[in-house]
Write the structure tokens for this entry.
Amino acid sequence: MKIHKRINGVRRSVMRNLTKNIGKSNEEAGNGTTTAIKKILITRPNHRLGNLLLLTPLVQEVIATFPDSEIDLFVKGGVTPVIYKNYSNISKIIQLPKKPFKDLFKYLKGWAVIKTKNYDLVINANYGSSSGRLSTLFAQSRYKMFGDFDESLALSHPDYKHIAKNSIYNLRQYLTQMGIPVNTSEIPSLDLKLDQEEIKTGKEKLFSLVKNDKKTICLFTNATGDKCYSEDWWTGFYGKLAQAFPDYNIIELLPVENISKLNFSIPSFYSTDVREMGAFVAASVAFIAADNGVMHLASASGTPTIGLFSITDEKEYAPYSKNSFSVNTNILDHDGITALIRKSLNNPES
């Protein structure tokens, strides 16, 4: 393990211990309506593509509950405005620099914004985030949801542990304490909110690559660290797919590093534009990748997504939109995974 990873691990552990007892979600009774909640801050100070996409269900939930609200997002890095381009309720995106000590002034300015602005509700989107708890405490608001892990909710909702769903279950319970009726509707899926022009362009780019009208399966062979599968694994898996789906195009979406675990042996598409990538994937009938940010991007594009898991927890990160699923590659081999994909493609409404 690299030194900086060890340092970051220690830092996160120390911060969690220091902040675990910070704050308690207000349980002050409300008036049973949503009209008093107009200005909302959602805090998720993280720069990773996957985590920011996993925030989209909570944003949808807040908009559905408070349709006339103005929502500020407290995040890190520069990709958030791209993800939330078509979310009309987003008022301001407060972006902390990815590396605070390289731009300390901008970092402090971001914290100053949430201190000087008055909100009606602040929501910490991740119970494990120490900076999320700190920013919830720091912000000016009548109501604050710190987003503690709730054992009773975990018992009543089998999917409570999922990163995209946990904060929604917490929010629904929190709002009942304010007198607002409980929401029992389905948890929203990840959503990039691609517009019609983006979808049209994505289809055109896919057609220009494959030059036929056959259905397309898209692969993404890259991932970070131990989540990344070897060239041998991908070569063997591709062989099984090609044999099982002779009437489909099988293509590869390339990562920003422009590398391929299949050694560029199949048609591939390269882009560094998140929305362009999402629109391209949206033209496919299935997307297959290890657990990573691009897997969540595919899920947010609306394409049935198959997540490959060997290290990380499926209960926390599995794609869950319609016809999406995860597989544990420690249990299933290439044949087993291919069989599940065949079943999924043959029963798209299941």
